[in-house]
Predict the structure.
Amino acid sequence: MCYNKLMREYTDKLTDWNKKSISDFVFYNCGIEQCKGGQFYGPKRRDYHFIHFVVKGEGTLEIKGNRYPVHENQLFIVPAEEVSTYQSSRENPWKYCWIGFLGIQSSQMLSSLMHCDPRRFVIDCMDAAFYERQIEIILGISGKQMSTHLRSNGIMYSLMGTLLEELGADDPEDLDMSIPYQAQQYMDQHYHNNLQIADVAAAIGVHANYLSNIFQEQYHKTPKQYLSGLRLKKARELLLYTEHPIYIVANSVGFTDQLAFSKFFRRMMGVSPSIYRMQRRHGNAKDSNFL
């Protein structure tokens, strides 16, 4: 990997990484770089999604065993946990800007941009310089204040809204209205209620067994596993960043019985909610696959 002085970058350090990962959709970093000829990054895997907008020049993206040419006024998307390498042309090195983001809803955002095609990593855009100007604004306000965090996220939301509109990805006719997607959205919106998978199936008009089968085909997990993971992430956020007693945390993620919530949490995390809160706040907890 090569570095040069023609790069400006800002990473949000105000928000704890664990809180970012269990937020719905949150800014992680951004930057602008004029690359040297042949400059490359990777192969590397990241825990967040990012999009690069090519302002001028050209290069290549390698991902999932394929190599894609990328040129001016195109963008390339790299989903979280995918190993990628991208390299500037030696003869016509690119200048690009990028924005990184994560959160529970970020994968659905990416799916919308890719029009639900997991191989659509390179996409035309009308004016990459427009996105560069938005990222310039974030770089101009970078800092560690809460106001910076809120303004950066606001600009990211505006940028992503423009991109969705430009790509036609927010057209209702283009939305994924499959049964698994509807079930996922219903759980995202109602996890805080005493929700059962039978309730989800009834809400979208299918049998629970059928829902379980097709949901697992699309998302590689059962609806129950998805709902449990969602509740766990939200519970961790409340335990770490609020002073709410355990019974309020339980009620807030769909458990009417505090004891049932504590058993669920201990089964998933290996410790009780109160011990998890104490350990995390004192920084002496072991790493977990859920982090």
Observations:
- Strands lie at 7-11, 26-34, 40-45, 49-56, 58-63, 66-71, 74-78, 83-88, 95-102, 122-124.
- DSSP finds eleven helices and ten strands in the chain.
